[in-house]
Amino acid sequence: MSLRGVVRRAAGSLVHRLWAAAREAGTVTPASPGGYRFRRLGEGACLSFPVGAIFGEAWIEIGEHSLIGERVSISAGMGPGVDLGPDSIVRIGRSCSIGRGSHIVGHQSIDIGDDVFTGPYVYITDQNHVYDDPEAPIGRQWPRNNPVSIGPGSWLGTGAIILPGTRIGRQCVVAGGAVVRGEFPDHSVIAGIPARVVRHYVPGRGWLPPHPDGTDAGTGIAAGVDVTGADVTSVDVAAVVGTGVGTDLGANLRSGIGADAGADLGSGIGADLGAGVGADLDADIGADLVNAAESAGPRAARGRPPIPE
């Protein structure tokens, strides 16, 4: 190996060792000077070096054994040095993992439950700009806050955006790139722009897509309707017509009961009509024929030659 190669290898090794030492020294832990600035930084928690923009630490809580990735920005308030009141604003639970490059921007309340994992570059905020005044620049209009909560055990995919007012239940999955706003129940898979529930967990049946009309997939019964032990009435049947039960019932009624009823009607009413109308016709026609014969009898007798004796 040439002298140039030897020098380059030695320099590269030195740079990597220095960088590893800098990362270890720059990591923020409960025992480091930077850790004391936080309202709470639990045992075993750390903010990886290089850290992102961090301010308002006095209103930020991070639970035990949570890992904050490199270049993650966490802020409380508009800027450093602002008194935000007695309560914490950003709360990250125990054993969480926040992916590198993510942003958590709190102004009123952001709650992230225990065991929440995120991919890189996730954005979570409880504040957004408004555009109420169409004449004023949007950036100069006073923003609006709405608390955010993310339930324990949830997973947020790469690049997900959590907007103000979002409430995500526990054990939920947010797909990468989703733009999430609104309330979502436990055990939901949330995806899209705007995000919606694309799957939910049904005990004993697994993860199922929601029915287009709001019923549980595969059951045909509207969510929240309990039919166990209940008398099924026509109202109940009408309520579940969309499942195919009402359709099958209608088809059976038309093809089965309707056909039988038609046959019975045809044989019964038809026979009665035949007997009744036929008897009336026989009686009326017979009477008319007798009357016609009687009136024609004298005329026929006058025109007929005498019978020889």
Number of strands: 24
What do the pLDDT scores average to? 78
Low-confidence regions: 216-283, 292-309
Query: The biggest beta sheet, please?
Result: 7 strands, parallel
Strand order of the largest sheet: 1-4-7-10-15-18-21
H/E element sequence: HEEEEEEEEEEEEEEEEEEEEEEEEHH
* Distance separating the two termini: 163 Å
Given the C-alpha coordinates, what overall shape results? globular
Radius of gyration based on Cα positions: 42 Å
- Please, how many helices? 3
Task: Bin the helical content.
Answer: 25-40%
Beta-strand content estimate: 15-25%
Oligomer: single chain
Helix vs. strand class: alpha/beta
Topology:
Blueprint: H1 3-26, E1 40-41, E2 46-47, E3 54-55, E4 60-62, E5 67-68, E6 73-76, E7 90-92, E8 97-98, E9 103-106, E10 110-112, E11 117-118, E12 123-125, E13 127-128, E14 144-145, E15 148-150, E16 155-156, E17 161-162, E18 167-168, E19 173-174, E20 179-180, E21 183-184, E22 188-191, E23 196-202, E24 206-208, H2 234-239, H3 245-303
Parallel strand pairs: 1-4, 2-5, 3-6, 4-7, 5-8, 6-9, 7-10, 9-12, 10-15, 11-16, 12-17, 15-18, 16-19, 17-20, 18-21, 19-22
Antiparallel strand pairs: 13-14, 22-23, 23-24
